[in-house]
Design brief:
This protein has 326 residues and is an alpha+beta fold. It is built from 14 helices and 12 strands. Helix 5 runs antiparallel to helix 10, helix 12 packs antiparallel against helix 13 and helix 13 runs antiparallel to helix 14. It comes from Actinoplanes lutulentus.
């Protein structure tokens, strides 16, 4: 670990000033500290933002939910409003990490966490995300756990967050504070595809700070859930995951929100699956035909072709669970 200075921000203004001067924000520290220990990250200054008043969960006037950036994963998952309105979010959080990490890790930090690609975390390996222009060792290396959607010639690393998959399905927005004021960015636009610049992972401006996540109101009743397939039952990242939210009226699906994790360089919205579902009556045949579209556009690598069928099966299973006929 390299030397660094540590300061505590007592209010948002102080945090933003420190951020503008090159400081890196830290709260739970469950990802950043590991990366610093492995010398993948070498910040000169850490800014502790844990004293900021960002630990809240509120139901908005229209029936959505706002979650403060410093709410822990455990507290968000257990919050009655989130469990009642968006069980897909609670499930995604509870299937993440370990109980000890969930007690420390925050909502903002979860969205900002970096890939678990072994080449990214091995400072002797070529990685454009860590060292732009150095190449991508995963493309020609062992890539069983890597992405099949949203990849580029520069990067094939998967996004690790389960929560972000659920938030993507629900059209959530990330609230940001910066030197020019506050703004709100759809999470689908906040998390960036690698393209030719995989080192730029979020649409953050210099010094900006995540203050909250907004989940908008959706038609009711809304049934939702999260399914995660992995090599072991706990403390493991997804090989494939599906976040599903469905609203039906008059026996017909009126709203369908579906996103996938473990297979994309960012949480992957399954728009073709959604379009196939809307306006149709739930049935076993519908879930199967919709799931066949889940891997549309996939570009498998040498060792992860199995993810195409795994993703389709995962989506079909969760559609059955959420929509019925499971």
């Amino acid at each position: 670990m390299y030397p660094f200075t540590f300061t505590t921000a007592r209010d948002t203004r102080a945090a933003l000033e420190a951020g503008r001067n090159g400081g890196r924000y830290i709260a739970g520290g469950t990802t950043l500290v590991d990366l610093m220990r492995e010398t993948v990250e070498r910040p000169g200054t850490l800014v502790d933002i844990s004293p900021l008043p960002l630990r809240f969960v509120t139901v908005t006037a229209r029936g959505g939910v706002r979650i403060g950036a410093l709410v822990t994963m455990t507290d968000a998952a257990a919050h009655p409003a989130i469990r009642r309105l968006y069980p897909v979010v609670s499930a995604a959080l509870e299937l993440s990490a370990s109980a000890q990490l969930r007690n420390m890790a925050t909502i903002g930090g979860n969205i900002m966490q970096r890939t678990r690609c072994t080449y990214f975390r091995d400072v002797t390996a070529a990685c454009n995300k860590r060292d732009p222009g150095s190449g991508c060792a995963a493309i020609g290396g062992f890539n069983r756990t890597h992405a099949i959607l949203g990849t580029s010639d520069a990067c094939v690393a998967t996004h690790p967050s389960d929560l972000a998959v659920a938030l993507t399905a629900l059209d959530a927005k990330v609230r940001l504070a910066g030197s020019s004021g506050t703004r709100s960015v759809a999470i689908a636009d906040f998390l960036l595809l690698p393209g030719a610049t995989p080192d730029r992972e979020q649409a953050l401006r210099p010094g900006e700070l995540i203050t909250a996540v907004d989940i908008p109101a959706h038609p009711r009743p809304l049934r939702s859930g999260y399914l995660k397939v992995r090599d072991r039952q706990s403390y493991e990242f997804a090989l494939a995951a599906a976040a599903v939210a469905l609203h039906s009226s008059g026996g017909v699906i009126r709203t369908a929100k579906v996103a996938a994790g473990g297979v994309g360089t960012v949480p992957w919205r399954l728009s073709a699956v959604e379009r196939h579902l809307i306006g149709r009556r739930p049935s076993t045949r519908l879930w199967s035909s919709a799931a066949e579209l889940a891997a549309e556009g996939a570009k498998p690598l040498t060792h992860n072709r199995f993810k195409i069928e795994l993703l389709q099966r995962t989506v079909e299973r969760e559609l059955r669970i959420v929509g019925g006929t499971a």
